[in-house]
Design brief:
alpha+beta; Enolase-like, domain 1; 3 domains; 5-stranded antiparallel sheet; 13 helices
Length: 277
């Protein structure tokens, strides 16, 4: 397929290049190039972000970590504070693709792709990340992702950075289940964060991927967990609630029934892993 390829060197140049119809932005290209190859998208112009220095940064302050749009998964994993302060995001990003994909793909790309199977996306839902747009607007991650492969981005807008609030959690857990051990696309993914107080759950966040049109937070489970001890009876009840909450579909990777059962069963990792406050 014929298309024009350009690589602006500033955000000002980028805005000018984006005005043409049929323009697609590309950072690592790990999602876009696949879509082009299978005919899902047919660009007239591809604009690479790789030469724009103002989009390549990682910085932090006392309140948040800010990740620029073109920071690769590999670069993010090498950032020391990620593993120390955001271990669930580290665990999720580490499972993405292969080393080659992690060297090219970006966390912002994972967000913009808006797949319900997005591993980095699930962690960002749990961390209540916010997306910084090119016009300076800040949008919560759950408002930014509007559906499978759909976001709140409007024509002429692009993502500049991801803002991740800092918050201390006593327990974190992330797992994805797929059809193979390496480079898998999840059939079901799950993550939770827990703060403890006096041997009980003070706060819990739980999210699932690949079981609904978007990653979902299970707010009813989170509310139910407050003040509870992590016991077999507690996990039994959570398992029932999860089975009721998830709304998976059949696809080539798994049936809806299997996904629902797996989602319900996977919460027993709390018992199997000996997780307790």
């Amino acid at each position: 397929m014929d298309y024009t390829f350009v690589a602006p060197k500033s955000e000002e140049e980028l805005l000018k290049e984006m005005k043409d119809e049929g323009t697609y932005l590309m950072s690592g290209g790990t999602d876009l190039l696949v879509k082009i190859r299978i005919g899902k998208v047919k660009p007239k112009k591809i604009v690479s972000l790789s030469k724009i220095p103002s989009l390549k940064f990682i910085k932090e302050n006392s309140e948040e970590l800010i990740v620029g749009a073109t920071v690769t998964h590999a670069e993010l994993l090498e950032y020391k504070a990620l593993r120390e302060e955001f271990p669930i995001l580290f665990d999720a990003v580490y499972t993405i693709g292969s080393p080659q994909i992690r060297n090219r793909g970006t966390l912002a790309g994972n967000v913009i792709n808006a797949s319900p199977a997005g591993d980095g996306l699930l962690a960002l839902y749990l961390l209540e990340a916010e997306i910084e747009l090119s016009n300076g607007k800040i949008v919560g991650i759950e408002d930014f992702v509007t559906g499978p492969s759909k976001t709140a981005l409007k024509k002429g807008e692009y993502v500049r950075a991801i803002h991740i609030p800092k918050s201390k959690w006593d327990i974190h857990y992330f797992e994805k289940v797929g059809q193979r051990n390496a480079m898998t696309i999840s059939v079901v993914s799950v993550g939770w964060l827990i703060k403890c107080e006096n041997d009980k759950i003070n706060e819990m966040r739980m999210a699932f991927g690949s079981v609904a049109p978007t990653v979902i937070r299970l707010r009813d489970v989170e509310e139910f967990a407050k003040g509870k001890k992590i016991t077999k009876e507690f996990v039994d009840e959570v398992s029932k609630m999860v089975k009721s909450d998830v709304k998976p579909i059949d696809d080539v990777r798994a049936s809806a029934q299997y996904r629902q059962k797996l989602s319900s069963n996977i919460v027993y990792r709390m018992i199997e892993e000996g997780i307790k406050c």
